[in-house]
Design goal:
The protein is of the alpha/beta class and 226 residues long. It contains 9 helices and 9 strands. The chain binds S-adenosylmethionine. The site of S-adenosylmethionine has 19 residues, from helix 3.
Length: 226
């Protein structure tokens, strides 16, 4: 566990050991909301690749009949606001109640709800898009197929998924000690394979080397429900 996590959430290691990963993720993000928001709420101003992928996603969603989009694992809500500013009917969902509280205060005109990506409070086939910006990173690889199936369930035919995550060049997903909660990096091809198994057609991917000291590739994948 990183010092940041231990200090921020005040939860002991022995307690965390008996939590499942969703409880652990929730407790960890609940404990770092203000710090996270101060570090990331304006981050895309200096990250043109991610910003433009979201812009492309929004433009493609606007070309469908369905302007309603979910920002799943929305955190402080800054990307929900960006999607709204790009002309979409955007709402945010997150499993961390403290993140949802923060998002509601930061973006009072927008709707945010506490929810798990594994069980979205959304009717079948009703969304033009789902944005998952670094929010699937904490999901253990064995649970990712079901998580992706749930995103596909809520997409209308023609609807889009933009998912961003830490990429790795090796053959397998790799668990690593993310600053907030344990996370996984993914080879882009393996992730795209899971999207195909979930019924999505991937038509764009961007692998960007941010020259970070951790050596991950920022990976953005755009897929469509046929
Ligand atoms: C790395 S943060 C990303 C937040 C935001 N999307 C951004 O790009 O700044 C991951 C977020 O996903 C949320 N999250 C992780 N697993 C989740 C799940 N299974 N269901 C809902 N939210 C989840 C966390 O609570 C956290 O707010």
């Amino acid at each position: 566990m990183s010092g940041w996590r231990a200090a921020a959430n005040g939860v002991g290691v022995s307690f965390l050991a008996v939590l499942n990963h969703q409880d652990e993720t929730r407790a960890a993000y609940d404990g770092v909301v203000e710090l996270y928001a101060s570090m990331f709420a304006n981050r895309l101003e200096t990250h043109p690749f991610a910003r433009n992928m979201i812009g492309t996603f929004a433009e493609l969603v606007r070309a469908t009949e369905h302007l309603r989009v979910a920002d799943v694992g929305c955190g402080p809500g800054h990307l929900t606001a960006m999607l709204h500013d790009l002309g979409l009917d955007a709402f945010g969902l997150d499993l961390s109640p403290a993140m949802v509280d923060h998002a509601r205060r930061a973006q009072p005109a927008l709707r945010f709800e506490e929810a798990h990506m594994e069980a979205l409070p959304v009717e079948d086939g009703t969304l033009g898009g789902v944005l998952a910006h670094y929010s699937m990173i904490h999901t253990p690889p064995g649970e990712l197929p079901a998580l992706l199936a749930e995103q596909v369930r809520v997409l209308a035919p023609g609807g889009l998924l933009l998912v961003s995550f830490f990429g790795t060049e090796g053959p397998d997903p790799v668990r690593f000690d993310h600053k907030v909660a344990p996370a996984y990096s993914w080879p882009a091809d393996r992730f795209v394979g899971l999207l195909a198994e979930a019924g999505l057609v991937t038509f764009a991917r961007l692998l960007h080397d941010p020259a970070s000291e951790r050596g991950f590739l920022d990976t953005h994948v755009l897929a469509r429900r046929p």
